[in-house]
Amino acid sequence: MSGRCIVCNKPASLWCSKCKAVNYCCRDHQVDHWKKGHKTQCMILSSNAGPEYITHSTELSSTDNRKALPTEEWLIQPDRVKKMVTFDPTLGRGIGMSNFGNTCYFNSVLQCYLYTKPLVNYLLNDEHLDRCILTKENKFCLICALKVFLNEIHDRDRPYARPEFLYRNLKNIGDFAWGQQEDAHDFAYAVLNSIQKSLLSNEPSKPSFKQEETSLIYQLFGGYMKSVIKCKRCSHVSSSFESFLDIMVDLTGNVTSLEEGLHNFMKIEELDESKQMSIYEAPNVLCITLKRFDIMQGGCKVNRTVVYRPLLSLSRNMSQNSPDKSTDYELYAVVVHFGSSIFVGHYVAFVKNNGQWYLLDDSCVTHVSESQVLQQNAYMMFYQKTYGRETKTNLSKSSQTQELKISSSSAPTDDVMGNREVNSYSTLYSSMKDHELGDSKRQDAFKMYKDQMKNVGRNDQCPCGSGKKYKNCHQTFVQHTITMSDVQAFLTHTFAEGLEDNHADVTNKFHAIVAQLKPDGQKRIQMRKQIIEAAKTSSGSPPQVLDRVELLNDQLFSYGEYAARNGGQQYALFFPDDPKSYDRFYTLLKSAKKTLDVCVFTITDDRTANEIIKAHQRGVKVRVITDDEKALDLGADISRIIDAGIAVETDNSPFHMHHKFCIVDNAVLLNGSFNWTRSASNSNHENVAVSDTPSLIAAFHTEFDRLWAKFAGTVDSGKKEAAAKVVSQQKARGH
Predict the structure, then answer these.
(1) Which residue in 8, 68, 338, 383 could disulfide with 329, CB within 3.0 to 4.6 Å?
(2) Which stretches make up the MYND-type domain (predicted)?
(3) What is the pTM of this model?
């Protein structure tokens, strides 16, 4: 189901194909609603949301009204665009991008654009930079910023790129808030809008609508839809043309392939008049977004697998009299969302470069096979024409009323709780991260959905869309106090006998368990281990087992995100009077799996130094910043850490490095008065505050990276040799 009928409020499976904002349970209600006024409101609904510069389109009659704009008036000549489309810049694979806290949407979309070859070709040219009005006026220009960042993303001497300037200007790109997870499609659209504004700012006079559609953005990403409307009463046929920058594919009706979704988008709609959409002119770069989220259904996500292929032909979707001779496309980038709803989860990008596919997961870049890419539950797909069209038709503005067609990610989609068909073969679901949180608008939607649940009677139909009575749906397993034994019993059943159970049933039962248990961070870790152990004992097929593991992990991650949003995990350690503080401190160091960043005055506590060295030995990327005055002392452990091969930089300024913080896996922050010394561990009254708050971690991570860059190279070969001598002296003294 995609929502509720606007006429009778019953479950609806039909929707208005024009505005995609209203649902119907049957064709009669759709026709009735259309005649009673939706016909006049539909155009308004379809244009409610959209960027300022890229929402207009050109409408024509079906007669002699397609007058081309003289090419000398075009903002960029079509032959230049063709060269950009057909020329391969042959740049090597770039590096990853650091996450500033909930910026995975930001990173994923930018990576896709920075692997869009014709756009890269434009950025490599200095023409815009040389005459940019915005930059000369000290205003933000996204084109100039992307040009600078393109160089950074291909600097292989860096571990990863830091798009700080771009992120600081987030408000200049669109209506986005720092530290909030946003929708990748919304951000992608905002980026194109911001580039368009930068391009138009260089024009001596305000371009007309016709001229705006000859800009670089429209000639690369823009196309024209043709709408043919036939009146059933008089048989009059009229045609209109609407520009577009992407295509939103609805997943209503159990769509299982991209081709099927595109076919549904173009099919004839029968009301008091028939209407059929087709592509009159296809773009050079085609962006397709699947409508996986529905904000009106509590932000639920359609996790159904939709098959897409590396090669795509639009020949079946083109208008009969289309001037386009090239309709074949090749996939080069994909944005994937991991998670069960719009307000939790993690975005990653897959990009193709020089024939090879790579997974770009924030700062991590991993080579993957094409088959792995095609197994993902894609959210956005980027295709480029296999060869560029020679000219772009510019459709002149007619005297008729301008018709706007805005794609919206909030249009209705299927209810995820009844149709969760996850790609079982995906090995990348573990990329989902606990620190990714939702924005306030989506949290409000979630609250609205939860409030709906509270107001439903036990015998009423559950509003989640499962079709069951509420008492048999979300109230399952909540008749007594939930314990970890209930968790084990549930997992044993679901992996031993319940693999064939309906996904919605399993989701609802486990959701009820988690909601009542309210597990903290440690319990969630324990529950994840229980899931893995139960999965190992299952006799089911690997696809079924992986599917169930992902389903249950989604629920745990969702709860963790919501808990973090409402306070997260915060606690304090006190030394020396609380013996548990020592154990918890060392447990946190031992828990490091990927990264361990330490910034302290010195380290003289042997046990602490040993844990740091052990982390390095098990493959954790360890970085230490310390004060240079104590680095090579006989009583300090810094020499031992350097000698172990750990990356260390020292504060060589006239002042002291007085920070005392540590970041574990970019997910947990330790900060306080605690010096990492023997006296701090055994004698002094000290404290350490522990937090998993993403925004706080991001701030400390930024400070660490700033200091790391500032003191880069301070521990040279000479200091390493000196450190080795100190270690020899320490061993001789029995240290």
Answers:
(1) 383
(2) 5-42
(3) 0.50
